[in-house]
Design goal:
By secondary structure, the protein is α+β, with helices and mostly antiparallel strands. The protein contains 11 helices and 15 strands.
Length: 375
């Protein structure tokens, strides 16, 4: 399911480029008038992977969102750049190889001559709280130090690509950039995930979710709080507030390297034409804005605070446990033969294969709704 959704989202990035090109053609404002080629690329991508976002259950909501919001985005673009023609190019794969975050480039010709890299993020729910990255407890510090380079992969400043879960490689790269003193504390965070797996993935009692439901819920706090305290210790002992602010700004895409296009079920906002979002990004990046971080429930929160002491944006990172479908828990509570596990499963039974994905979990949320820019 996750792989299918990932393929659908990749396909819809190509669809976005086609749709914007088609809209520009309809207004006689296209540079190359090649929407037919871009549609064919999208179609070929889908056919090769046997997906159809327009009808697939997991993709239809995104497909409908694009068709609803992209015409609005296009109208705002052509109003912002009058007397211009436009081209839209899918560059996500190329940019990923260059360690950039853009998904497509908008080329503008005419009174304005520029090329704008755009990072596209679509959410089937609200964009009042957007998720920008995820990982495990120990990946947060690695993500703070290095650029991500694929799922679970990171790249050092000198171009060395390594897997975050390979501790020897990670530790070597951390030492190379002068942060070796944090490793004893980071190793304590490393120890949490094996404890979680030993009990919930391999433990006899956890074969049935009903047996460990309370312990699972308590685990969010038991393990999450431990990881939060250790992470805060690393932050306070190894980084200045300025360093933390700079990296968090990069992580949430507010560093100015790319413009943002955020699409939700009912609302859409972009940093090219929306003055409120542009002003917010400028305020966050301002030298007069400081960062304040602290434990808040199951979260580490990062507040961007302006010179007047006002919180202008909050980033929340919850530290939790993730079932990842490790137990068979259908809504109707009925047992069934489960093809992927090749066995009959009763309600609450641990899935032998899928349970290996039970893990510690962090997500990085940008609380845009609190800023007022979506009103």
């Amino acid at each position: 399911m996750e792989r299918e959704l990932h393929l659908i989202q990749d396909a819809l990035e190509a669809y976005c480029v086609f749709k914007l090109t088609e809209l520009s053609e309809n207004d006689n404002l296209s540079v190359n008038n090649d929407s037919n080629l871009k549609y064919q690329y999208y179609k070929d991508y889908c056919d090769k992977r046997e997906i159809d976002p327009s009808i697939d259950k997991s993709g239809k909501v995104y497909y409908n969102m694009y068709n609803k919001h992209l015409p609005v985005f296009w109208n705002r673009i052509k109003e912002t750049y009058p007397n211009c023609t436009f081209d839209f190019i899918d560059v996500e794969k190329d940019f990923r190889n260059q360690n950039k975050k853009g998904d497509f480039v908008m080329i503008i010709r005419g009174d304005n001559q520029k090329e704008i890299s755009v990072s596209l993020k679509a959410y089937k729910g609200s964009i009042s709280s957007i998720q920008v990255c995820s990982g495990t407890f120990n990946s947060f510090i690695t993500n703070l130090l290095f650029d991500k380079d694929g799922v679970g992969m990171f790249k050092s400043k000198d171009g060395i690509r390594f897997k975050g879960s390979k501790k020897e490689d990670r530790d070597r790269e951390i030492k190379k950039i002068g942060y070796g003193s944090m490793l004893p504390t980071l190793h304590k965070i490393d120890e949490i995930n094996p404890k979680v797996k030993e009990y919930f993935v391999y433990g006899k009692k956890a074969e049935w979710y009903q047996n460990i439901k309370e312990e699972w819920e308590e685990g969010h706090y038991k393990y999450g709080y431990e990881a939060i305290d250790l992470t805060l210790k690393i932050l306070r002992e190894n980084f200045s507030d300025t360093e933390i602010k700079s990296r968090i700004v990069e992580m949430i895409g507010f560093d100015g390297e790319e413009e943002l296009l955020l699409i939700g079920k009912t609302k859409m906002v972009d940093s090219i034409t929306n003055e409120k979002l542009k002003v917010l990004i400028d305020k966050v990046r301002s030298e007069n804005t400081i960062i304040r971080y602290y434990k808040h429930g199951k979260n580490i929160n990062f507040d961007f605070v302006n010179g007047g002491g006002e919180v202008i944006l909050t980033i929340g990172i919850p530290f939790c446990l993730d079932k990842n479908g490790g137990w068979f828990l259908p809504k109707d509570k009925k047992g069934t033969f489960y093809k992927k596990e090749n066995m009959f499963l009763e309600y609450g039974q641990r899935r032998p294969k899928k349970s290996k994905e039970i893990n510690t979990s962090i997500n990085t949320y940008v609380y845009l709704g609190r800023t007022g820019i979506l009103k």
